Amino acid sequence: MRLFNHASYHFIEKRRTAYVISAIVILAGIAGMVFNVFAIGNWQNYGVDFTGGSLVQVHFEDDVTVQDVRSALGGVSGPEVTRFSGENEFVIRAQLSDATIDEVRTGIETQLTQAFGPTYEVSRTELVGPKIGSELQSKAALAILFSFVLTLIYLAIRFELRFGMAAVIATLHDILITLGFLAVFRVEIMLPTVAAILTIVGYSLNDTIVVFDRIRENLGKKGARKQDQAELVNRSINETLPRTVLTSGTTLAVLMALLILGPAVIRDFSLVLILGVVIGTYSSIFVASPALLEIEKRMRDRSKKKKLHKAADAVPV
Asked: From CA 66, how far away is CA 58, in angstroms rounded?
């Protein structure tokens, strides 16, 4: 099956509109981050993995809902409660306090016993210290930064430096929009969320490379350098559009199934990946390819200026 087999859309002509849309979304995300700093004391809604705290996993013998457990532990002001893999399996996350892990566990057990009686058992307790949480934040940021550097190096070797620069711009665009979405909607940042962000980097890069590979192939054809470069890039995007749509569509179908039918523990992970696939597809068409054109134009203009300066210096006075 080959959708958009003879596509001839004018993507490059719409690049300025895409720039405006991207700028508005990114600025909205940055505004959300700034607002969070004043509202919750941090630019993102970090979970226990990053801020430190205690985690208690409990299993109930009877049918119990998340709302029942949350109400027993103090409602909205109490610790966070999420359903785990089993039907009556729950994970309770409490923010770090002066209490020890044993005291936190005892307090939770007391509240649960008062509400449900001895119809449950605690299967796991963990404590994440503030130092470990801070280290995880730093390592997560370094992992994303490291992926940018490797992307630039790989594409500079595989293609040319300008391709690597354009790919990094597109990937940075995707990460900024994703982080802005997380900040605006205050999605809890846990380790699986960081894994989803790194997955987005890989997906966006893969989609961009497919388009770049076709651009390089078309540039290698006879007389291609004399053609209008914007038209050549636009044709390359249209030629890879069937593959882009099918890949993104099948990926989104699986992720939507995970979001709707999967357990609550992977909902945020699935949601971030869905957002990343949509943004990655958009950026490979409207950000990476136009960025490549802009970089090529600037490099060409700089080269012409150097030649003019050399010619002027060579003229005898």
From this structure: 12
Q: Maximum Cα–Cα distance for the chain, whole Å?
A: 100
Contact (CB, 8 A) for 230 and 303 = no
Compute CA 67 distance to the chain's CA centroid, rounded to the nearest angstrom: 30
Its pTM stands at: 0.78
Q: Which residues of the chain have pLDDT under 70?
A: 1-4, 52, 75-77, 85-86, 96-101, 128-134, 136-137, 151, 263-265, 303-317
Residues 258, 266: Cα–Cα separation, whole Å = 8
- How far is residue 180's CA from residue 317's CA, in Å, rounded to a whole number? 58
CB atoms within 10 A of CB 113: 13
Please check whether residues 251 and 182 belong to one and the same domain. Answer: yes
Beta strands across the sheet bearing 120-128: 80-83, 89-95, 53-60, 120-128
Question: Where are any strands of DSSP class E within 47-161?
Answer: 53-60, 80-83, 89-95, 120-128
The answer to whether residues 123 and 138 belong to one domain is: no
- Asked whether residue 46 is assigned to any structural domain, the reply reads no
133 in Cβ contact with 49 (< 8 Å): yes
Residue 43's SS3 state is: coil
Tokens of 141: 């940021």
Give residue 113's domain range: 53-128
d(CA 94, CA 248): 37
Distance CA 66, CA 46 (A): 21
Give the number of C-alpha atoms closer than 13 A to the C-alpha of residue 25, restricted to the C-beta side: 16
Dihedrals phi, psi of 188, to nearest 5 degrees: -70, 125
**What is the reported pLDDT for 105?**
77
Residues 47 and 93: beta-carbon distance below 8 Å:
yes
Number of domains in the chain: 2
Average pLDDT over the chain, rounded to an integer: 81
Q: Where are the alpha helices (DSSP H) in 4-100?
A: 15-39, 48-51, 66-72
